[in-house]
């Protein structure tokens, strides 16, 4: 079963167990009535049934679960990542979203590690992957000339760099 990270729980909402989530995925309303996996920051996994999804503002949503009935229950899953089956969201197996590359290790074509994908910026032309290690930040456009390979099984991407892409982090 192929899962997609659909959002992160950012806080509680009201007293009846609802949570606020931040999501970069469109159409998460289709999760109502379906089970999702909630991965806590401790690594613990919970399977919860989505009762209701409602938009707030921007990329913020509220979500209610059958199993959470009060604010204490909701607070227990703060900062957790919500994952759902890709097919529920209409995403084919051979398709991927920008969120899918977060956490991937990045290497140059020569095999040098340049860090991990920590963010994705959306621009009018294409996405920009932000890759960081201890010393450098690298911004790479999601275009064929720079992104040579994405391997989801190994959780790695291979990139081609040009001068100016890697910048030393400011202290």
Q: What do you see in this structure?
A:
- The mean pLDDT is 89.
- The chain folds into two domains: 3-89, Elongation Factor Tu (Ef-tu), domain 3 (Beta Barrel), CATH 2.40.30; 98-168, PRC-barrel domain (SH3 type barrels, Roll), CATH 2.30.30.
- The relative contact order is 0.17.
- Helices cover 3% and strands 47% of the residues.
- It is an all-beta fold.
- The strands form two sheets. It has a seven-stranded mixed β-sheet, with no helix packed on it. A six-stranded antiparallel β-barrel has the order 1-2-5-4-3-6.
Task: Draw up the topology in text.
Elements: E1 3-13, E2 18-22, E3 35-39, E4 45-55, E5 60-65, H1 71-75, E6 81-85, E7 105-108, E8 113-122, E9 127-132, E10 136-141, E11 147-151, E12 156-159, E13 166-168
Parallel strand pairs: 7-12
Antiparallel strand pairs: 1-2, 1-6, 2-5, 3-4, 3-6, 4-5, 7-8, 8-9, 9-10, 10-13, 11-12
Query: What's the arrangement of strands in the largest beta sheet?
Result: 11-12-7-8-9-10-13
CATH topology title of the largest domain: Elongation Factor Tu (Ef-tu), domain 3
Report low-confidence residues grouped into runs of 5 or more: none
Strand/helix succession: EEEEEHEEEEEEEE
Largest sheet: 7 strands, mixed
On the 0 to 100 scale, the average pLDDT is 89
For this entry, give a set of tags.
about 170 residues, mainly beta, Elongation Factor Tu (Ef-tu), domain 3, SH3 type barrels, 2 domains, seven-stranded mixed β-sheet, six-stranded antiparallel barrel, 13 strands
